[in-house]
Amino acid sequence: MNTIMRIENLKKSYGNVKAVNGISFSIPEGSCFGLLGPNGAGKTTTIEMMEGILSPTSGKVYFRGKKIDNHFKKKVGIQFQSTALPEFITVKETLEMFRSFYPKPRTLDEIIEICSLTDIIDRDNRKLSGGQRQRMLLGLAIIPHPEMVFLDEPTTGLDPQARRNFWNLIDRIKAENTTVLLTTHYMEEAEILCDQIAIMDHGKLLELDTPAKLLTTHFNGVIVRIPHSGLLDFNFENSAVIGDFLEITTNNLDRTMKELLEAKVNLEGLIIKKPNLDDLFLKLTGASLRS
After folding, report:
1. Number of domains making up the chain
2. Dist. CA 41–CA 200, nearest whole Å
3. Is residue 48 part of a domain?
């Protein structure tokens, strides 16, 4: 698979604060690439340098083998976390206005169809629900037939149904061989949508791989989670106190349950679960993905 974007030893400092501290990775063309990390990890700063909005302190950003420039900006679409739009106009008028900015935009009908905007096309854009607004903003991002789309936490605050509807839109964009860079605070979203995930914390890249391989690398078996009251005197192998729970990672559930029973542990509130990305974040960063 060809590489569409590559960053090399990217750094960004604000005085003595190193927001991004020497990260490097490549993004395959046509993939959905997730850039994840707790708040303050350096994700947004990294994305803004990749978009050409911020200048790096040092390091390079390449698009199709060339350093990004103003020409590059014509080939990408961006959906920001927050976007101010003209008021007192409809969704259709908003789309038409933004289409006028580009020499060869998508047709209005194509945007409406891809982003499922038929039911709101004549509505005042101030009167949209969260999910409807995100659909419209995605429509704005794909107007110029972008080769790559940046989606910075596009589903934050949406209800579960609106979030899943938005996932379908991302799949439709990927089906056109458009590359997607996604940041999100929802672990399920990242596992479902992303072909690769880069995990950041404190400005550094901690891990990069497919979601499945990351979980296989860091976990073997299942997690037993139980309220830790009264358990701190027991020494369980591969265990850690996370919040109000003692978490035991085990590849032999029968043996672990036997040890808990022999220790006369109260099993009320016990949970047995497969590790997911949130567990991986806790292990790598000591913080929840949504912290």
Report:
1. 2
2. 6
3. yes
What pLDDT shows up at residue 127?
A: 92
Domain membership of residue 256 as a residue range: 220-274
Which residues have a Cβ under 8 Å from the Cβ of 141 and sit 6 or more positions away? 77, 78, 79, 149, 150, 151
Greatest extent of the chain over all pairs of C-alpha atoms, in Å:
73
- Measured between alpha carbons, how far is 136 from 130 in angstroms, rounded to an integer? 10
136-158: string of b/e by CB count within 10 Å (b at 16+)? bbbbbbbbbebbbbbbbbbbbeb
* Dihedral, 255, 258, 260, 266 alpha carbons, nearest 10: 140
CA 269 to chain centre: 31
Determine, yes or no, domain membership for 123: yes
Nearest to 33 by CA among 118, 151, 114, 116: 151
Do 71 and 182 belong together in one domain?
yes
Does residue 17 sit in the same domain as residue 96? yes
CB of 41 within 8 A of CB of 200?
yes
3-class state of residue 219 by DSSP: coil
pLDDT tens for each residue of 8-45 = 999 999 999 999 999 999 999 999 999 998 888 899 99
Domain membership of residue 281 (yes or no) is no
Per-residue pLDDT, 231: 55
What is the H or E stretch that residue 89 is in?
none
Considering the entire predicted model, what is its pTM?
A: 0.83
Query: What is the predicted pLDDT for the residue at 274?
Result: 86
